[in-house]
């Protein structure tokens, strides 16, 4: 699948995903992407012509400083910054002052993607509920679409999108397939650039690292869903984060129609 915003690798509209009750999710409502730092002129034009009115950025200040988004000035977007440390490169241990053996030992103790997702859900219910609210209650009906992104668009973004789609009644198998798609989209140039950057920082490219940076194994998002199910499911989780029943109904109406 090609990115819909030129200059990105992992951008897409989540419309067209099957719903458990039949039909499919609506196009033009919830978008996902990697960072918009490399957006080309054509990509900027695509954004300006799209239904997107709100851009949610999960990146840390350090990530944003190193790769500021390029969204153009043809029209205004509401940019909402909701930084999440879990899933970011800034959450990795420092390699400074470590010899190779100590460095490899430190990075070998990194949590798995499944662990990171569960930690994220455990600490960010209010953040995810705010994203759900932004989707449910667009301030601009003409540009009511919401684009969520982080650096890769696979972990913080992947969890957020899976959570919202699941709460709206999307078929879980299809949601998992959408999550897994990110690994294919990021393979090649993006993955090579990111791994080269980590290598230059002195980070050993052991499997635990390369998986964190480039992989989207179905087991990881399934672990997130299992954690949610143990606590009543995605909708109940969002309620716990402060999403009202009215906003939950509006979210379902916006995504599922």
From TrEMBL:
This is Protein-tyrosine phosphatase. Residues 126-165 form the Tyrosine specific protein phosphatases domain. Pfam families: Y_phosphatase3. InterPro entries: Prot-tyrosine_phosphatase-like (IPR029021), Tyr/Ser_Pase_IphP-type (IPR026893), Tyr_Pase_AS (IPR016130), Tyr_Pase_dom (IPR000387). SUPFAM superfamilies: (Phosphotyrosine protein) phosphatases II. One of its GO terms (molecular function) is phosphoprotein phosphatase activity. The lineage of its organism: Bacteria, Bacillati, Actinomycetota, Actinomycetes, Micromonosporales. Gene3D superfamilies: Protein tyrosine phosphatase superfamily. Transmembrane segments: none annotated.
């Amino acid at each position: 699948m090609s990115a819909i915003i030129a200059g990105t690798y992992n951008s897409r509209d989540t419309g067209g995903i099957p719903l458990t009750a039949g039909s499919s999710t609506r196009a033009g409502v919830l978008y996902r992407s990697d960072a918009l730092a490399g957006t080309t002129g054509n990509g900027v034009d695509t954004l300006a012509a799209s239904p997107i009115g709100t851009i949610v950025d999960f990146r840390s200040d350090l990530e944003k400083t190193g790769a500021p988004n390029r969204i153009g000035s043809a029209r205004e977007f509401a940019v909402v910054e909701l930084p999440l440390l879990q899933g970011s490169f800034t959450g990795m241990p420092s390699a400074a002052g470590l010899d190779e053996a100590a460095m490899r030992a430190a990075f070998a103790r990194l949590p798995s993607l499944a662990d990171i997702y569960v930690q994220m859900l455990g600490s960010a219910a209010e953040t995810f509920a705010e994203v759900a609210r932004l989707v449910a209650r667009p301030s601009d009906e003409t540009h009511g679409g919401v684009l969520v992104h982080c650096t890769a668009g696979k972990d913080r973004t992947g969890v957020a999108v899976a959570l919202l789609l699941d709460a709206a009644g999307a078929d879980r198998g299809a949601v998992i397939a959408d999550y897994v798609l990110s690994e294919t989209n990021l393979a090649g140039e993006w993955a090579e650039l990111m791994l080269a950057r980590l290598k230059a920082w002195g980070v050993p490219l052991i499997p635990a690292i390369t998986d964190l940076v480039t992989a989207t194994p179905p087991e990881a998002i399934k672990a997130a869903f299992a954690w949610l199910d143990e606590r009543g499911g995605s909708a109940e989780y969002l309620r716990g984060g402060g999403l009202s029943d009215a906003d939950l109904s509006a979210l379902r109406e916006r995504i599922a129609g």
